[in-house]
Amino acid sequence: MTGGRRGEQIQARGGPHEQAQEELAMAKNSGKGKKPSKKVGKLPKGKQARAQAWKGTRASWKDRPKVKRDEFDEEMERLQVELVKLQEWVKASGAKICVVFEGRDTAGKGSLIRRITERVSPRVFRVVALSAPTERERSQMYFQRYMAHLPAAGEVVLFDRSWYNRAGVERVMGFATEEQVEGFLRNVPPVEKSMISSGIILIKYWLEVSEEEQAKRFDERNTDPRKIWKLSPMDLEAQARWYDYSRARDVMFAATDTRESPWFVVPSDDQRRARLNCISHFLSLIPYKDVPREKIEFPERQAKGDYVEPRRPLRYVPARY
User: Fold this and answer.
1) Within 10 Å of residue 270's Cβ, how many Cβ atoms?
2) Beta-bridge partners for 206
3) Angle between helical axes of 233-240 and 211-223 (0-180°, round to 10)
4) If you write DSSP's letter for every residue of 117-140 in order, what string do you get?
């Protein structure tokens, strides 16, 4: 199925944002009677339900067998072909796509992004993973350092964490005041609405990992020499402050899950399943079409003529394998 046909199906069903609202309404009903978290309880009742909405959608992901490697590889190859088709459509149409990946530490954001970018051009698909702000950046308007990385025509930008740092890690770790966080949450919807009005297709994903799986992945980072670079003091705090992060997430959803820019939650305990489902969903939201390609005929290689290989020693890499 091409992206164009997917786009037609989405329009017929009311569009991805309308679908998201339907999912939220279903989750709202399934969450009735549940006591909201402490900070969420301060919100209006309608927003309490939306802050809890993600919990009502997890059941369909539980108790499924893990995806086998050969099944995963086969389906991933198919999806990566579609990502290349999307890339060619983005280049031809001048589309501007911005995808935000958020979630707890170890949720699998980086590995998911690597699968998306594995077979596409880095000149079209750009990954943005900003480090801590400099002194100068801290004096700027909060959104300012992210604006420079938004996509131009013919680009897909993938944010590995984004402006939502203020609602998550900055809030939990005390890097931002409550006043700054509340101001941020008020400002996000109109800022994102202006992005969308400018022609950017904005998609937001939250990768949700369980307590048990997070602890397992932290242990792997501590014992696997290939992963030790991923473990930081901030990671230790992330595990210790699990429920502080939960409260921050709930409030963030309540304030920023809008009709124009909804959040899509990806349970990620089974990383293979999460990658397949997220990439498939991402492709379904973009009305891309196959771009016709001209038939390529490779020219014949020129004759050797008077060329002679130079007689000088070359430094070859040792053949250790």
Assistant:
1) 18
2) 102, 265
3) 160
4) HTTS-TTTEEEE---SPPHHHHTS
- Cβ burial of 177 (10 Å; 0-12, 13-18, 19+) is exposed
Cα angle vertex 106, ends 81, 210, to 5°? 105
114 to 72, 216, 245, 307: CA distances (angstroms): 15, 21, 25, 43
User: How far apart, in whole angstroms, are the C-alpha atoms of residue 121 and residue 134?
Assistant: 30
Cβ atoms of 141 and 121 within 8 Å: the answer is: no
* Architecture (CATH level 2) of domain 3-131+141-285: 3-Layer(aba) Sandwich (3.40)
Cβ neighbors of 279 (< 8 A, separation 6 or more) are 76, 79, 83, 112, 115, 116
The distance from CA 97 to its chain's CA centroid, rounded to whole angstroms, is 12
Q: What ranges do the domains of the chain cover?
A: 3-131+141-285
* Residue 200 β-bridge partners: 96
Rounded distance between C-alpha atoms, residue 54 and residue 51, angstroms: 7
User: In angstroms, rounded to a whole number, what is the distance separating the alpha carbons of residues 310 and 312?
Assistant: 6
Instruction: Convert the pLDDT of each residue in 234-257 to its tens digit.
Output: 888 888 999 999 999 999 999 999
Calculate the average pLDDT of the chain. Answer: 85
Q: How crowded is residue 252: how many other Cβ atoms within 10 Å of its Cβ?
A: 23
d(CA 200, CA 97): 6
- Read off the pTM: 0.80
Rounded to whole angstroms, the Cα distance separating 109 from 103 reads 7
